[in-house]
Every structure is written in structure tokens, then in C-alpha cells.
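Continuing from the previous page of notes. For each protein in this section, the sequence appears first, followed by its C-alpha cells. Read the first protein now.
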Amino acid sequence: MPELIAYLLPNDWRISFPKEWSNECEQYPEGNQFLFYPKDDDLTFRITSFCVSNESKYAPIEVLCDVFQDKCKQLKKSKVIQLINCGFKIECFEGHIREGWKKVRWVSIGVMVEGFLLIVNVFATRRNSIEKNINYLNTICRV
């Protein structure tokens, strides 16, 4: 197992990835996205965190599930979810997109706790690359 570094994300989430992986933060009006990827593979983890509340009352997990499922309605349920055991409510969908002549696999994982939704999108041309590295999601925790 490679040496891991823990990264703090918005809304008190933390995740760990190998020390030799690259990471970036892209800023968007709706929030920052954090990218993590190995230098020798086309695998990319794109992570966005949301706090969902109304008048200082956090959204229940059921509402977060509905929101996430609606976002993923063009995707199908994923069996990759069996590889994730981080202790939170998890929803997992997969599909693919085309980039030129390449078929890029896409797995979208929603990690939920009352009032907070962490969306992890994983992209790679090879499915086994996703399956081999999805276990880093088991390092997700709240701090």
C-alpha cells in the first residue's frame, strides 16, 4: 500500500490519496472541485462538496439521495458500490462519455450524511483502473 496523504475538503470532509498523486483545485461559481490523479494513468477523481440546508435546518439524507439520483438519471446503478465501505450512505452510478475516439468510463458516487453531500466522479478509459483505485473512497471521513 502506498503512503497516503489526507486532504481536507470543504464542509469538514477528509479523504486520503497516495503521496505521489497530483492534486488541483478548480474554482467555479457553485463551488470548488478538487482533482486527484496518478501521473502514470488517465484516472481522475473529481470531488465536490455541498452543504444543503433551509433556514438553518439540514436536509435529510432522503432528500440528498433524491437530488443525487436525479443528477445521475442518465447513468445506471453501479456494482462498484460493493467496493466502497466508508460508513456513510452511498449511491453509485456509472456510464461513459466519448472524448474523440476514446470511450471514457465514468462512475459517480454520492456520499451523504444529513445536510452534506460529497460527490465523487471518477473517470478513466479502463474500468479496472477505477476498480483498483476506488478503495481510496474508504478513507472518507468527517472531521
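Done with the first. The second protein uses the same format. Note its length before scrolling.
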Amino acid sequence: MAHLEKSREQALKELPAGSRDAFNRHVEAQRDRYINGFAAIEAGENERYFQQGLEEEGIRLASEVRENPDGLEEAFEQARTLLSAAPLPAEGKKAAYAKISETLAESWAETRPLEELLPAIGDELARREFAGPEGLGNELERVGETVNGPDRPEAFADESQVLAERLKLLPGETLGRMQVNAVKSRAAIAAGEVGKIERRIEASFGQFDKSEIEANGLLDPRQKTRLIGQLEVAKKEHIANIEAANWLLSSEEGDRGPQRQKNADRAFTFLDNGEIDRDTLALKIVETKGVVPESYAAALSKGTRSNEPEVILRAYENLTKVLALAPQSAVLAKRERNLVDRFEKWTLLTKGYGLSPEEAAETLAKGNDSGSAHNLEEAFDRQFPDWEGKDLGSQTLKELLTPADTRFPEGSGG
């Protein structure tokens, strides 16, 4: 009636005064038809209003179920109470309850562990595939009975049966979406689990049992195999590191062959953890074992090639100490770094030219710059024509390490 009167008043305002009586007579004659039409409109609007309210209530209940899965039955009870009071036709109530049931069942199912949920979804989809079209859609018609009847999920002792019954409430599209989301979540969690285990392997040096990896349900067989392999490698590395450290601390020099170099390299890498001064550590290894760690020699080489005078000065100061202890080190003389040849340059600058170490470092820093390196090489060639490529033996190095006034008399080198 309200719609009818409102529409008539609006129409009268827009009509000429002479036409209003005729219009009123027409409306009165067709009143019943108009009333029925507007009643249908009003009923539709009311139904949409209540449907929207029920949808919002379903979202709220689903949120509560996600936070408290044990409250599912209470959520169903609230939904039934709400629907019983809603001014909707029976079919509308049935459809609304089915939708809320789907939402609640989905929310509850998603709280289950992924290793439990994924197989259950797969089983339910397989069951429906086997049952064919006639096996689909019937569960929702029994939703009240399924939830509240004697065979409700809570009556099952096996939790997997409870989940299976809940999944029967869901349409195939929902199950498919849940399956995809669950697979993605499990992949992300598995990746995080792999990272966590890798960090644990590193932190513990592999000192835990591989059965923990084998029993981890978040990992697939390939991931387990790879992590167990890393665990075994970490254990072997730890043993080798401890043996190398013990060798370094012992009074025995050990094998003079390749193994001694391997032990020195491993001991230096293992102990060079930031807590011990690496120059002191390296010199201790050279002094007690007569071998230069490869990584330390590489660091010295990098230092001598720096463009920063302070870095160059420190590198040559340490190189001087190392060569004094191991003048015939093959590690230092390797072609790619040729630290022995570089040391001769340093000695020629500090003893031949008489430059202070700081001045020599400044000169070499300029020489290490690609723009001026060529000029520095030419200067060496002019001042010391025989320096380049010189094969320096133990005796020569000892001479280079003597005071400047005995190695280079005044006026030499020119």
C-alpha cells in the first residue's frame, strides 16, 4: 500500500490539473491489481534484505568457527534460530540454511591440519566421481539430519570420519577451490620447513637424528632425501673440522703432502669466525705448520690489488710476516696471484726508492687504478730493468727482508 500511494502522489504532481480526476478513477478501478504488484515488489525487497542479513551473519559465524573450531555446533544452532525467525518462505529458508551450512563446514574443514585435509578432499572428490551425477547434491538436503541426527559427525570416534562427513556438505566447486588453496599452503609451509631444517642443520653441525626428517609430514620424499643428504654432509664436515683444529693445536707437523695444505685450509676456514683475528690466526698456522692457508693468501692478494692505501699497507705488512716464515710458499707464488712478485715491487719502492710504507701504499694504490697502472709499470722498468719475472728463491727473499742500507746502497737503482 505504501508503494501504491507514493507512486500515485508522484504521478499526480506530474499530470496537468485536468487529468488528475481521470487518473484517480483509473487507479481506484485497478487498485487490487496494483496492490498485488507492489506487494510482490515489496516482498522481493524484504527477501533480499533478509538474505543479505543472513549472508552477513553466515560470514560472522564462519569467522568464529575459524577461531574456535569446537564451536561449530553452536554456530549451526545460531543459524537455525535465526532462520526460524526470518520472514522467508520455506524454500528461501532451505536455500539460506544450505548456504550457511556450506560456509560453516568449509570454515571448520580449513582448520584441520593440511596433511589430514588434503587426502580427505581427494577421497571425497573421488567418491563423487565414482558415484556419478546421482551421487551429488543430496547431502545438502539432509544437512539438518547430518548435523543434528544420531549419525552426526560428533558420533564418530574416528576424526577422519568427522572430516569426511563435513566435506560431504560442500559442493564440488568449493572442494576444488579448497584443494588448490591447501596445496599452495602446504607448498609454502613445506618450503618454510625446509629452510628451518637447513638452518638447524647449520646451527647444530648436523648433530640430530635423521629420523626427525623422515617423520616430518610436511616434507615430500624428494625434500626428505635432500635434507638427509645435507645432514650427513654436515656431520662429516663437522668431524673433519674438529680433526683439522686438533691437528693445528697439536705439536705434530703432520704429512708434508697435499693433506697438510687441506688441513691448514680447513682449520683456518673453521676458526676464522670473527672471534679470532684472522691475521694472527693465519700467522700462527704458518709459524707452527709451515703452510699458508689458501683463503688467506687470496685475501692478501686482493688487498695488494686494492685502490685504498690503508688496505694495501696492511696487506703488505702481513705478507712480509708470512714470507719471513714461509719464503718458498707455493701458495703465495701461484701464477694467478703471484704475491712473491708483488712483494718485490713493494720492497723496491720501500728500499730501492726509499719510500715510507705509507708512501709506497699510496703509489701502489695509484698503480692499481686502471688509468695509471701502465705508467707505474714503466717506472719500474726504467728504475729496475731486471725486476719483472724474476725468479726469487729463499736466499733472495731473505736479502729483500734485510735493512735497506745493506740491500740497496745509496744511489743504487738508478
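What the second structure shows: The mean pLDDT is 76. The chain has 20 helices and no strands. We return to this in next week's lecture.
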